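hey m, so remember when u said the tokens were messed up on ur end? i reran from scratch. heres the input so u can diff it against urs
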Amino acid sequence: MKEPTLVVLAAGMGSRYGGLKQMDPVDHEGHTLLDFSVYDAKRAGFKKVVFIIKHAIEEDFIRMIGSRIEPFMKVEYVFQELDKLPEGYAVPEGREKPFGTGHALLCCKDVVKEPFVVINADDYYGPKAFQMMYDFLTTHEDGDKYSYAMIGFYIENTITENGSVARGICHVDEDNYAAFTLDDGKTWEDIPEHTLISMNCWGFTPGIIRELETMFPVFLDNEVKENPLKAEFFLPNVVGDLLKEGKASVKVLESEEKWYGVTYQEDKRTVVEAIQAKKNAGLYPQELWR
């Protein structure tokens, strides 16, 4: 089996946060949350990382993040741009919003040919998540279905005190396999503690790229036609469709670690304190890339 790759979704702008949070330092040494995720992935065994970015941030991203990781891992850059569409399609007039995480991953089709884990650039998942993903991707292959994995976090470990958030709730069968649903925030319901939720940390085989190539034009023909300025091709929805069609299974790998993120500016202090505490406890060196 080929060595798995780390794919990082880093093209999005932090609208609620108010800036490019994937490049915002969270410690005195200038590391970002993304540095810690890539460092954890490297410790788990990953040797290659693919950053999905926009051309508009390319120079700053490479200078602030990519250049210090390049001596330690193979680094590639992929660009998600609005006009990166199948032949015969054009960007709807007036559209500025990206086409979503499914489209972002589809932009990797020429550089990712092996099993891979995909993460958000602005989320901290913890070392266990990457070790579980590495172990899964190096021991599982597609059979009569695609064999995917997802890190499941407990809801109480993912909440910010500074505003509302959207979470994908997982329904798991007795073998810990998932039927995935997306909570889009239209309704509010009490969620019991220890409910498993997704924070967009997925493990895939290369077949997901072929499925995205098939499904994206359908999305453009239907959802974008109905909502040309805002419709998004979400990766969890793609996985959900494959589950419903019986084409994939998703193993939920449960993590008891606490997720950290900077959804809102007010979250940063909590994240900075948590990262320093982990450093003080010896989980990370003061300088990651040395």
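this time it looks ok to me. The mean pLDDT is 87. if urs says something different then somethings off w ur setup not the seq
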